[in-house]
Amino acid sequence: MESKRSFFETLKAVGWSFIGLRRKKDFDVDAEGAIDPVHMLLAALVGVAMFIGLLLLAVQLAVSGK
User: Fold this and answer.
1) What gap in Å lies between CA 37 and CA 59, rounded to an integer?
2) 2, 4, 9, 57 from 39: Cα distances, Å
3) Closest CA to 45 of 5, 18, 6
4) pLDDT band at residue 53 using 50, 70 and 90 as cut-offs
5) Residue 14 buriedness (CB in 10 A; 0-12 / 13-18 / 19+)
6) Where does the chain cross the membrane (predicted)?
7) Would you state the pLDDT for residue 66?
8) CB contact at 8 A, 14 and 44
9) Residue closest to 47 by CA, chosen among 10, 6, 11
10) Three-class SS of residue 15?
11) What is the pTM (predicted TM-score) of this model?
């Protein structure tokens, strides 16, 4: 088993997972325990916040007509 991933490596893994482009090899390493669960939770919350922010921005631009 590899060492634990850093927070930024976890953030990158979560980002690729959000769009569905994750290599099987990387997923297998993560499944063996390379990702810290706390890092995963924080990265997922950051990802969700960014996604919601982008949706709100898109709605605001659509409603304003610019």
Assistant:
1) 33
2) 16, 10, 9, 27
3) 18
4) very high
5) buried
6) 40-63
7) 61
8) yes
9) 11
10) helix
11) 0.67
Q: How many CB atoms lie within 10 A of CB 13?
A: 21
Domain ranges of the chain: 7-64
Helix (H) or strand (E) holding 31: none
Residue whose entry in the numeric block shows the structure tokens 């659509």: 62
Tell me how long the chain is: 66
Give the Cβ contact number of residue 35 at 10 Å: 19
Residue whose pair of structure tokens reads 């996604």 in the numeric block: 51
For the chain, how big is the Rg over CA atoms in Å? 15
